[in-house]
């Protein structure tokens, strides 16, 4: 007789920016949707930090002492990186070994929950790494929820999101918080970073109550640079050049909300293409993304990079989804169909 797995399990969806990536780091709004691909995390009490993942090909055990040393070093590098406005040393540390970000995520969650013991986590993700679809955010959110359940600590979504954001800071330096917020709360949200108080996280179910159809995702390859490195690249651009494009992206996000409210998809397409041009000018696009975007525009559609860019996923839209899928296949890619606006973090039964 098969024994049912009673280990606490949680999952969180990936996400896609409809508009607003990079500008959101500078306090501009973004419209972000959860997607129907999820990261699943199981958690079990342990005296060590144990990480098992068939999807990531990981299986290793670490002592609490070694894990704590790594975690404290990462926190120190983050503090110094913030002071210097340069997280290169933190990124170099985390890129040495894929276990390191996960160890630090476990330790951040345990520390925030005031747990002095370890944890054994099992990770199974449907979200491709480095795709601009929030793989690290979904993992952080699902991990916090699963660990809290394993130790019998019931957390509201706001607290799950707060801890996940601290994990994301160790991954990406100074992320906006939009990715983890979408993975946590799900659906379609209006997100805006607030330097002087809580971030604005506004569900858009009432303003946009209909399903977002006609969208396809295209994975163009794993970026050579991490999200944190790409964010840092934009920060290092000449200030007036960067800020002019950030302003355009911020204005376009307000216009996108108005267009979606009135179902003006012609305007929405124009704004997506405008966003792609500005992101390319910020230096976060690639020849592959630019080439695909041009082809989609040539048939009357819209396309833009997702997330930090530098490769990863392109969000494509056309009223005729079959025509769009045919073009994508002709261009040498496989269109990815996925639902937008799905449920956020949840405990799996």
Could you characterize what this model shows?
The chain is an alpha+beta fold and 349 residues long. It has two domains: 9-206 and 341-348, 2-Layer Sandwich (Ribosomal Protein S5, domain 2), CATH 3.30.230; 215-336, GHMP kinase, C-terminal domain (Alpha-Beta Plaits), CATH 3.30.70. 44% of the residues lie in helices and 21% in strands. The protein has helices spanning 64-84, 88-95, 99-112, 135-150, 157-172, 178-185, 227-235, 239-261, 265-281, 287-298, 321-330, and strands at residues 9-19, 29-46, 49-53, 58-62, 118-125, 188-192, 200-203, 215-219, 302-305, 313-317, 335-336, 346-348. Strands 1, 2, 3, 4, 5, 6, 7 and 12 form an eight-stranded mixed sheet that branches. A four-stranded antiparallel sheet has the order 9-10-8-11. β3 (49-53) and β4 form a beta hairpin. α4 crosses α5. The longest helix is centred in the last third of the chain and has 23 residues, at 239-261. The chain is globular. The two termini are 19 Å apart. The model is unreliable at 1-5 (pLDDT under 50).
Task: Walk me through the topology.
Blueprint: E1 9-19, E2 29-46, E3 49-53, E4 58-62, H1 64-84, H2 88-95, H3 99-112, E5 118-125, H4 135-150, H5 157-172, H6 178-185, E6 188-192, E7 200-203, E8 215-219, H7 227-235, H8 239-261, H9 265-281, H10 287-298, E9 302-305, E10 313-317, H11 321-330, E11 335-336, E12 346-348
Parallel strand pairs: 3-5
Antiparallel strand pairs: 1-2, 1-12, 2-5, 2-6, 3-4, 6-7, 8-10, 8-11, 9-10
